[in-house]
Specification:
The complex is a heterodimer. Chain A has helices spanning about 15-35, 35-40, 50-60, 65-75, 80-105, 115, 125-150, 155-160, 165-185, 200-225, 235-260, 275-295, 295-300, 300-325, 340-365, 370, 375-385, 385-390. By secondary structure, chain A is mainly α. The model of chain A is unreliable at about 370-400 (pLDDT under 50). Chain B is α+β, with helices and mostly antiparallel strands. Chain B folds into two domains: about 5-210, Alpha-Beta Plaits, CATH 3.30.70.20; about 215-255, no CATH class. Helix content of chain B is about 35%, strand content about 15%. Chain B has helices at about 20-30, 65-70, 95-100, 125, 135, 150-160, 205-210, 215-245, 250-255, and strands at about 5-10, 45-50, 50-55, 75, 85, 105, 115, 145, 180-185. In chain B, strands 8-1-9 form a three-stranded mixed sheet. Chain B has a two-stranded antiparallel ribbon with strand order 2-3. Chain B is elongated. The mean pLDDT of chain B is about 90. Classes of the chains: A mainly alpha, B alpha+beta. Chains A and B meet through helix 1, helix 2, helix 4, helix 7 and helix 9 of A and helix 2, helix 3, strand 6, helix 7 and helix 8 of B. Chain A: It comes from Geothrix oryzae. Chain A: It is found in: Cell membrane. Chain A: This is Formate dehydrogenase.
Chain lengths: ~400, ~260
């Protein structure tokens, strides 16, 4: 019998507790002492690890809008079981990003200012608004999960009545701010390295967030299939993998063509800090996973798919960190490495996210909703794929113990 | 309304006496020690290149990048020239530090309630018809305060009057869309640490091209997505209806009965 070789994370609860405590301490230090004493940020390097983390979190939370669009707008109903996990991922991702943004602000007490003080010329203003509105939309999309748990059904009807415009609005908001994170850097042509600076930054950010968001969905569905409950049929997951491969291919073509037209390709002919970072990002995140995903065998294999989508996520992280940090280290030839406090806050917040996810997955009807609502998918699932592939009885519960 | 003010900085006339910095510090109540770089306590500083001195300070751009990127409008451009900052609005996002093509704003990193600091272009002096503190302090006339149009004409006059003394370019006339600081130099500006890649177009245009698409994304995208939903929903309805017909029970007849 073929067993699933997706690595398990066991015994991470004490690690998570340590990370969260360290992060909380770091946050206290940051608020008590200010940014200068606790971070390695400077006038020359005003944005660092936290901004990169924000890009990362938002990009990985892109599953929320892609899956909602596919299922509820494009009526790909067979993906229904993954809607709630995707919304949960997005909701947690956004809340954490908002938290990091507030920690990153020099005046956290002024965080509400963009609500009342508008500068329509500012990308940052647009992003603040998109984040606030989309987090609201996500909370509305998430609310039924909580309300179901406590058997309060009348507001659910109301939410369902207005859900279509909200879903459309949510998809549009996501499109806007996923690309706007790229637009943030349009203003620094003299600072950002030519390998990353391009007028197409918003387009590239949008395409890559689709690949990474779907990869997160695939990873989640693989991890939550480990306890023997087939989560998404192999065929559907293979279809998602096809969509990922397509997004990767589009991204690659646009990226290379853009480098060609801007004449930045010669930066790649010599081995420098930047070209190595660029190659790492493109190979790990885009070329190799694409090469893997074009094979049907990989798309239908749990292990293959796990590593391919993990690579997409890693390469995506590389790309965002390169844009936010590496590409800016050229000017003014000053390097930046995050301080221990910056790292602890980021790790602590990541741990909070994982804990929140597993806690909510455990106590709220996130993964069980289809039993009540869309039972037919539950019935359809086992008939499509071979059971042994999915339900290795010796698999432990993947949720942290 | 008063006309647009500017300063003409003739690099060939500067002797590096630092009186501009001292005057600036006095005007702004900053600690008086001499400083070589822009900082929280030096809103202007002299950069030395061989025997030439270049004043660095906020350029008070005509279309300022910092003003365009600030999400809360803490930075504003006044019609007389100064780019002003309001720390009461500022959320501390530091986008202005990231975006300023001249690397001017300095941030109070050590504070828990930080602001940015930079040259203010002495707005209260300008309002009362006086010249800026640095221009007043300059003993050689290397910094001259006045109406921007007049200073541009003056600069052009100096270039034509003594051919060979200056490179034929007024830095700031059109760079990044024009600035309030106009420089004359005896050597090419690139040799004095001026960024030669900034171009003449105002930097905010770079993001405006992306931001101008927002209404389109919302309107066209909204219609498109709603249309897609309607079509796919209709298709599902038709399918359900047809399959129910095949199964022999007509849903409409059921409704009638």
């Amino acid at each position: 019998m073929k067993t699933l070789s997706v690595p398990h994370v066991t015994g991470w609860r004490p690690i998570a507790i340590i990370l969260i405590l360290a992060g909380a301490l770091a946050a206290v230090a940051r608020f008590a002492l200010g940014l200068g004493a606790t971070t390695n940020l400077s006038d020359e390097f005003p944005w660092g690890l936290w901004i990169g983390f924000d890009f990362l979190g938002i990009g990985l939370a892109a599953s929320g809008f892609t899956i909602v669009a596919a299922v509820h707008l494009f009526h790909a109903k067979e993906y229904e079981p993954i809607v709630r996990p995707a919304i949960l991922t997005a909701f947690i991702g956004y809340l954490l990003v908002v938290l990091v943004l507030i920690i990153d602000l020099g005046r956290p007490d002024h965080f509400w200012h963009p609500l009342v003080m508008w500068n329509p010329h500012s990308v940052m203003c647009e992003i603040s608004w998109c984040l606030m509105l989309y987090t609201t939309v996500l909370s509305l999309e998430f609310a039924p999960i909580i309300l179901e748990k406590f058997n309060i059904h009348s507001p659910i009807k109301w939410i369902h009545a207005v859900s279509l415009p909200f879903m459309i609005f949510g998809v549009l908001l996501s499109t806007l701010h996923q690309s706007s994170f790229g637009s943030l850097y349009l203003i620094v042509p003299n600072r950002l390295h030519a390998l990353w600076y391009t007028p197409l930054l918003p387009v590239l950010f949008f395409i890559s967030c689709i690949a990474s968001g779907l990869s997160m969905v695939v990873l989640e569905s693989l991890i939550f299939s480990r306890n023997g409950r087939p989560f998404l049929p192999t065929r559907l997951r293979a279809n998602l993998a096809k969509a990922i491969a397509l997004a990767l291919a589009v991204y690659f073509v646009v990226r290379i063509q853009d480098l060609l037209t801007r004449g930045a390709l010669h930066d790649l002919t010599t081995l420098t800090y930047y070209s190595v970072a660029f190659y790492a990002e493109l190979l790990v995140g885009f070329v190799i996973p694409f090469a893997l995903l074009i094979f049907e065998k990989v798309r239908t294999s749990q292990t293959g798919l796990y590593y391919a989508s993990l690579m997409v996520v890693l390469g995506f992280a590389f790309n965002r960190m390169n844009t936010a940090i590496t590409g800016l280290e050229r000017y003014p030839s000053q390097t930046y490495f995050p301080s221990i406090i910056e790292i602890f806050i980021m790790l602590g917040i990541t741990a909070v996210g994982f804990c929140a996810f597993s806690f909510i997955a455990e106590y709220l009807p996130v993964f069980t909703a289809e039993e009540a609502g869309a039972g037919q998918h539950r019935d359809a699932a086992p008939s499509v794929e071979k059971k042994p592939l999915f339900a290795p009885p010796e698999c432990e519960d993947p949720r942290p113990s | 309304m008063t006309s647009k003010k500017a300063m003409l900085i003739d690099i060939s006339l500067c002797v590096g006496c630092n009186a501009c910095q001292a005057g600036c510090k006095e005007e702004n109540g900053l600690p008086p020690q001499e400083e070589k770089y822009l900082s929280l306590t030096a809103y202007t500083a002299l950069d030395k290149y061989n025997d030439l001195y270049v004043r660095r300070m906020c350029q008070h751009c005509d279309v300022p990048t910092c003003v365009s990127v600030c999400p809360v409008g803490a930075l504003t451009k006044s019609s007389t020239g100064p780019v002003s900052y309001d720390g009461e609005k500022c959320i501390g996002c530091r986008y202005c530090l990231q975006a300023c093509p001249f690397h001017v704003p300095k941030y109070e990193w050590s504070s828990t309630k930080p602001s940015i600091r930079k040259c203010k272009f002495c707005p209260s002096r300008i309002a009362s018809g006086r010249q800026t503190a640095c221009a007043e302090a300059c003993p050689t006339g290397a910094t001259k305060f006045g109406d921007r149009d007049e200073l541009l004409a003056e600069a052009a006059r100096r270039i034509t009057a003594e051919p060979g003394k200056y490179v034929p370019r007024i830095y700031g006339e059109q760079d990044v869309g024009g600035t309030s600081m106009l420089y004359l130099s005896p050597v090419p500006f690139e040799q004095l640490g001026f960024d030669s890649r900034l171009g003449k177009a105002p930097m905010p245009m770079l993001t405006m091209s992306a931001l101008s698409k927002v209404p389109n994304v919302l309107s066209v995208g909204g219609v498109l997505l709603a249309g897609v939903w309607w079509i796919t929903n209709r298709r599902a309805e038709v399918q359900a209806y047809e399959s129910s017909l095949k199964n022999g029970n007509d849903p409409e007849r059921e409704d009638d009965e």
